[in-house]
Amino acid sequence: MGPLNGFTVIELGGIGPAPMGGMILADMGAEVIRIERANGTDPKQMRDVSARGKKSVVLNLKQPEGVETLLRMIENADVLIDPYRPGVCEKLGLGPEVCLQRNPRLVFARMTGWGQEGPLAHAAGHDINYISLTGALFATGRRGEKPVPPLNLVGDMGGGGMLLVNGVLAALLETASSGKGQAIDVAMVDGAAQLMWMFHGFQAIGGWDASQRGANLLDGAAHFYDTYECADGQFISVGSIEPQFYALLKQLAELPEEEFGNQNDPALWPELTDKLAAVFKRKTQAQWCEIMEGTDVCFAPVLSFMDAPSHPANVARNTYIEVDGVTQPAPAPRFSRTPSTVSHGPHSLGQDTEATLAAMGFAESEIKQLLESGTLGR
User: What residues are labeled active site?
Assistant: First the structure.
């Protein structure tokens, strides 16, 4: 059983970072109950990886009976995940004050892009917008070219889903000692800003030029921290920052000392990048793996996410698993005594509605009445 066994999380249906956070909590052993609309997409049909380990309950929150049903469920929960824009839960009659009156120990986690307050709080947005306001997008890309979106990993997932889990776990720890719940304002723009912490420090000591893209140590400007094409059209990555790692790179790639001896002169980086590119073009990705993989060069082949599960290192660590025929990342992090697991794949829309309410103390007659009124769905 995972470390969160015994905790109950109610997740209001949403997209992106909130479901990701719920998935991680479910992997860790929490009972995660996802509240969905009757006309919503079916998680099982969509092969929604984020729905793994969760129960699916269809509940009409536009009906007073639906709101009351959810409040009764909240009385038995530890966490509520709210993925809506600020004020939506309040309009439904499900704001933090109401929910905490019903359950004073509840952790009410609110997942938004711009936060609960501020001039942009009620505006629509996506990952690309949130990372734009933090400098993360500006810093990503090649010099002289436009910024490149790093998928939706920085705002949605790292700055959103991971920050949500972090906040929930911290709040649960505090509740264990105080006996009181609280609301958490989780904003993707805040999370993306936190992910940029290192570069603020670099800028403060003159080690980074925030006005330039593709001109700094970790943004692809340095020849020893970049990706290179191989003879077969595949790519490899090197990150030989430390002097001893750079020395090994020179040795294994047979780089002449008279040309590559001055590692940290930015004025030489463009020229050395071109020269190193020519070297890596001489062999295939597999050949460079044979020479450098597993050494202190800080080297890896650049794999697609479809190829990654078959890499020997990932196979050895069981980094990926298959659930209902879908290859996906295994639960992380790894606990020595209470390991996380995936209890099951996505359930069909509303598959757990009646059983979940019965387990929470709803009488059979109440469930029947709620079904007949259209408050519940199967």
Answer: 126, 156
